[in-house]
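Field: COMPLEX_INPUT
Field: COMPONENT_COUNT = three
Field: RESIDUE_TOTAL = 925
Field: MODE = joint
Values follow.
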Amino acid sequence: MRSFMVGLALAAVACGRGDPARGPRVVCVSKQINEFLYDIHAESVLVARDLTSIYPPAITRLPSVGYHRALSAEGIVSMRPTMLLTDGNLGPETVVEQVRKVGIPVVVLTPGSTPDSAQLLMQRLGTEFHHEAQADSVVATWKQQMSDVLRDSTKWAAGRRPRVLVMHFGQMVNDYLGLKRGSTADQIIQWAGGVNAIDSTGGMLRLTPELIAKAAPDIIIATDVGFDRLGSSAKFASLPGVALTPAGKSGHVYRVDETEVMYFSPRTPGVLRKIAEWLHQGASSPARS
Amino acid sequence: MGDEAPGRMPVARRSDAFVHLGLALVLLASLVASACLGAFTFTPARIASYVAQGAGWIPLREADTLGRSVFFQLRLPRVLLAALAGAVLGVSGTLMQGLFRNPIVEPGLAGTSAGAALGAALIFVLGGSTGALAFSAPLGVFAVPVLAFAGAFAATIVVYRISSSFGKVNVFTLLLAGIAVNAVCGAGTGFLSYVARDPQARNIVFWSLGTFTTADWRGVALVGVCFAVCFAISIGYAKPLNALMLGEDEAAYLGSDPRRLIARLLVVNTIMVAAATAMVGVIAFVGLVVPHVLRMMRSSSYAFLLPASALLGATMMVVVDIVAREVIPPAELPIGIITAVIGAPVFLWILLRDQRKGSAGYYG
Amino acid sequence: MVDRDERRGVELRDVSFRAGGALILDRVSVGFEPGKLNVILGPNGAGKSTLLRIATGLAHPTSGEVRYDGESIAGLAAEPLARRRAVLSQHVELAFALPVADVVLMGRYPHYGRVPAPRDLEIVNHALALVGMENKRDQPYPTLSGGEQQKVHLARVLAQIWNDDPAGGSDAMRYLFLDEPTSGLDVHYQLHILKVVRELLSPGCTVIAVLHDLNMAFEYGDHFVLLERGTVAVSTSDSRAIPAEVLERVFRVRARPLQTREGAGSLWRFEL
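Field: COMPLEX_OUTPUT
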């Protein structure tokens, strides 16, 4: 169903495309899709990004059209794009309608929730921007690395599974959010041999010190913005609630980039190995700071 | 009437018309500026060309397609919506100050805007086909304004009832009741944004600070019609509103029915404010600043104030919109923040000036 | 003798008023004739304000009726009534800066639609001249002293019932009510206002004033109605006919009459 929708969307785009001689001008407000475009070396189609698309670092040379949840149609259209590309996570919702109204197609490519669907997305991007060969090559390597790491993960899952809490900082609510079960980060934790310290399934949970203490994680993985506010593991470990957890007391607080755990990408196998190492160093080894 | 005529015509001074004309010209200038400035910069000549193309007077130019679309679909509705919302808020402030006989009253402080916001938030979160308010689905696109009106009306009634006894309004109590109702509605809206599933929450947070980003022609039509009707009704009551300045008893002695007047104008005011709030979110302080400036500048007579506050309110909003768009491009500052930055100091200044005047405190 | 149903002036017939369980006015029947300064007297709580609100038509009596020149006012609409009847209140709170002339012009509101006629503006000027405020017509109202402000309201009220044709029929009858118009003013303004009011007396106008200063009332008034706890204690045109005992009982003071010249109102010295 999903691939059907993706195909439909792309077909609609193909019909409404601007002058091919000019070359495509794409405004993409999705971190994941932006990263993939760079992976398949199709980044030259990009003319603008959203504020939070900062990987790979080269992308920051492109102008930003603002925070992906506080966009302005005029700002996007002023880039004279031939297409607005998004993974569905953008706001306010009327922006999509407004951009379409001035004749610019909006393509929504949802990445799904598995590495397979993410790989499919990359291949669709390859088709769309005529970089099929690169896309296929990246996907092939990615698939290989994923199957290798998943093979290794069986031995990580065999032993004790530490409780892991992934703490993300929500900029619009100005508070910490915990990723629940069923999310991409949760899947990565599971493969790495951990178990999500939060019991419920869904999107993200607003964390209070009590909830953090109740979750009692052995390991805390904090994303970049939330970690960098405090600056170090030691400082993070002293946050209210965190200080009462096994992770806080033993100093097992680690930092990842948001882009490493929020979606599946070719970097995921590497991230998996990194996290597995943290989880299975065990309580005996010193914490990284 | 020559200059030898005994005195001026206070209810409708001839020279008032000149001031109105001046304000209209300033508004026109700001409208043109707002139409030109932004992520896309249009020159007035180009705009004229777009209009001519759109009207069919000159043939369509291919190269102008994008510019035309942006101008007619995005820019123009936004500029007009800002002007209309400003007119609504300016007139609403003037009306409420007349009804409650105090210059520190406006729809933001009296709870009307907050009630409208809560009504609209209820639809955002609980509306749709599966929400708790699914019954509102037949209302279609009118669901938001209708619920906004219901919320605004409920909030205004509560504030009015609490603050009036034996038909007289105690303004001190009114301001306190307004604070309370604002707090309750704000808590309700906040709660809704907290429990909302993600897409709805995006709507509320973004819009509750005031924004013209989502402007479209439907919104312009709704606010435009509501404003036109409500303004036409209000201006017919200029004389009784003046009389009301002396007090409800005095107004009754002069031949009007103050209770009915207040009830009617409250309804009219609530409709306008609800429509505007439903489209652009909560914007405060416009209704406070605009009438105050006009009173200081010229006159407290309603035949002057009502049209003037529409014109000046519209101008203020259009200028604020330009600022919101141009200060941190391509991002936009929420409108409500800018009006608060301007309006809160003015509010404090009115209070301080009032204190200094002591028992002879007056306004204007 | 005047036929009872063709009584001129303002007449209250059997007026009672009950509010919140209390009987504030108890079957008050009293007549006020035109051409005289009718004065209502009484201590606080006697029901003077209520009596005035009912007599002016602002409030409806629980029972009984009010008649102006024989016609009951119960059925009259607010605007036609406002063209014949004006009320000067004790204190009018105006918090907005309007020029004096604008305030006086409000008295003409019942007489014109959207735009005032030249006649209305003339009347405003005449009214201002009558109270001696014509050179302050452009001054903002809040900058005036208390006494000046009250004079402006008197001008407004006069403008409201300005009568060009005093000899005309019942349509030309006017009714002026004054609710403690001198309270809070210094003696200059008190005397000035009473002087102006006396000069207005004419057969075409019924004037009723609530006054609190007994001596001033007796000096300037022509007919006296003394209210005591919702009923009429005394109604007379001769202030000298009011005995000290009545004053002492009603006002709860000791009253000692003083010598006055022949023909003047009675004059009292009060002590607790």
